[in-house]
Amino acid sequence: MSVAKIEYTKQVLDRLVAFPTISSDSNLAMVNYLADFFGQLGARVFMQHNEDGRKANLFVTLGPDREGGVVLSGHSDVVPVEGQKWSSDPFKMLESDGRLYGRGTCDMKGFLACCLATARGMAELNLVRPLHFAFTYDEEVGCFGAQALMKELARRGIKPSAALIGEPTMMRVIEGHKGCYEYTTNFVGLEGHGSQPDLGVNAIQYAARFIAHLMELGERLKERAMAGSRFDPPWATIQVGRIFGGAGRNIIAGNCSVEWEMRPVQPSDAALVKESLDTFVNQQLLPEMKAFSPSAIIETIVVGEVEGLQVVAQSEARDILYEITGANGADVVAFGTEAGLFQEAGISAIICGPGSIEQAHKPNEFVDIDQLKSCLQMLSRLQAKLV
Ligand SMILES: [Zn+2]
Fold first, then answer.
1. Catalytic residue at 77?
2. Given 107, 139, 140, 305, which residue is catalytic?
3. pTM, two decimal places
4. C-alpha 338 – ligand 1 centre gap (Å)
5. How far, in Å, from the CA of 344 to the mean position of ligand 1?
6. Terminus of the chain with fewer CB atoms < 10 Å: N or C?
């Protein structure tokens, strides 16, 4: 690894960290910087804005205009710093003892900086297969950018054959993770005086029965754990994270919302849960509520359904990663990424990137400079697969 290349990568990372691209805020300043950068290299770029126009994905292509090739993908957003005790300004990169500190250094602007440093070298080559870069918005809050990007790629007929998502894995090759499906279920009953519970429809009590049913389903999912599963825990899980409802102790609760999630190991886990809930809600809970109050409602809002990354027998992305990292085995992880969305879109996907998930989302987030060096090495070996 040339000193110049790692120094250049550090400079780029310094610049990227200085964009405070917290998911709730605009990422356009950083996206414009990236678009300029790649534009100057002569790459083809397109931006895809979200509904309110405050955020955008950026998709970049080097090399020939044809199917196939590899896409290097990373999200542009970072998690908030509020309430965290940082020893330095989180949006000013700080180098100390072989580490680079700052929000996003590890998750995942370190990988993005390596992508830019690599692109600079590859832009001059005569690539036979295209090298794409995908920079997405809103990964940390539900992978909304990547979901929109998959539709846009299909619309434009862009079909890379393999995707590398550079989430922090300490450069280990990750071939699978669970899905992450998030929901809010709202209950609308009928308010009334607490002394006459039979004259209202208590939304909290119906929500409680719904939650009890979720917990039963959670137990059923345990029995579906596949032998030899490498996930921890090995089964799909359900978890209720927040509940709101009611106006006061002596008032029949007219409203209740339940925020819950499930982490399916396989798509059929999610299908089982959805089918069972549908039957329970529409054949039992809702008819009971409506019998007394015809305007009663139970509705489930899909906050996000991020697909899991299924371990598959044949994987072009995994073969490429084995070659360019020298690894001969791959793991699975508990955290979700955009990789499942690529796989769902028919693109072979794999995860490998610099830094540790241990440092992600924490105060004094950092990435080891050695990790960036390994990443740069991996990406330079990718060159051989494209020329
Ligand atoms: Zn991330």
1. yes
2. 139
3. 0.85
4. 9
5. 19
6. C
